[in-house]
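YM 10:42: Dicarboxylic acid uptake system A sequence, as discussed on the call
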Amino acid sequence: MPTRLVPKTVSVLREGYSFSRLKGDAISGLTVAIVALPLSMAIAIASGVSPDRGLYAAIIGGFFVSLLGGSRHQIGGPAGAFIVLVAASVERNGIDGLIIAVILSGLIMIAAGYLKLGAYIRFIPYPVTVGFTAGIAIIIFASQLSAIFGLDLPGKEPGPFAEKVAYLAQYVGTTNISAVAIAVLTIAIIIAVKRFRPGWPGMLIAVAVATLAAFAFNLPVETIGSQFGGLPRGLQAPALPALSVQKVISVLPDAFAFALLGSIESLLSAVVADGMTGRRHRSNMELVGQGVANIASGLFGGICVTGTIARTATNVRAGATSPFSGMLHSLFLLLFMIVAAPLARFIPLATLAGVLAVVAWTMVEKAAIRTLLRTSRGDAVILLVTLLLVVFRDLTEGIVAGFALGAVMFIDRMGKNVAVNPYSDYNAKAESPIANTDPDTVVYRISGAFFFGAAATVGSVLDRVAGGARNFVLDLSDVPYVDSSAANVLEGTIGKAEHRKVRVLLAGATQNVRSILESHGISEPRVAYCATLDEAAARIEADKNETTD
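YM 10:58: structure's back
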């Protein structure tokens, strides 16, 4: 099996896995499990499902992400980025439809890994990732407003952002002061712990203190028990929902959305881990591992799974050395679920909403946004378009539109970097004899990738200079790549030169460039291919001598 499709677990075992490494991984796994416990439940509730489904995803999905993934330090589980997509999927297709979509997304990710598509995720422009992350954060925060304020809503709040805010504004008068106090207490504790005791599990401490406060003062707030009836003490048996062709077709868009976002999020997380550790992940194996994890999570009733940046970073900082820390994190979560499930029913929903409010705030890359808005107008446009479309339209539309804008701006920038100039502009001493002494010869040089973004500009220049000479030499020695659009433009220029009886010589073309040009009819004897400008000069001189004789 190629190295790129070998799980990092196998690599670690080949190196030799000692008891000291196991001890370090156990400590880091426990640390991450403490962070993941409240977060997994909060994400599930915000996604419109019961909290146990978030724990199933963290336990089952997280285990397989570490076991079969391509990163040594990746921690998998439910992520805030999926809240919007999961909630919309549940509303459209119900829980069974969601589970089918999760399983299908796993199959799509496995296929992407075996098709070696993992490396292409890095081509998503940075402003797009910053924009959609900020957009998701805004939506997550908006989704928690009703729980934070304890609003008494007569019906289900709308999904779209603008409609949601307008709807919630109508019921501000029903605000529950106790819920607000619990949410504020939770946020304050998380911030204080992060500032004064950054090594402590701030989220778990905040949830525990707020729950005790609500219980001790008998505060009238909604809890997990009043809303969902508590948590089961263990995993449910794996099962596949009833399948039909119509159901599969209806959830396919959701499955592709889950797969796309999961791939982006997990590979970004793996890159972050690489930056912190100096290691290098295997992107295609990571996709395969994520795919298996989503299939397993779906079979056990869990929601979407992906690599999570915050929990992965926590894992690295806690001293993890291998994927076993991620597997142990899942086992610790299962132990917590078995032991502490009866206590979870007392957790106020406002507390979990406070946790997610902090998560949403930390998701927004404030420094990156300031830099992008300040340094580049093009990047600022991509960022804002992506963010606004994610918030007011749809996550997938935002990513696609941002990527398309980024591609167009890249093409524009690359096209402007392609230069076509007289050879003397590159050679101040005018050492080339044909550039100096022959009035019947024009020598131009193209620098940069000659592709469709620059073809029209280069073509207009060539058409102007080729008409007033008997010999037109085009230096292609600094052209690494030519595409069909550029070859077609060059073929048109050569056709006009032939009509004017101008001889065309192409110097310095690589074998790859020459093959592409010849496939478009730019071949001898229509043109003369020369290895260097000196060879072109010698040919022109020889032709003159033959004419004189």
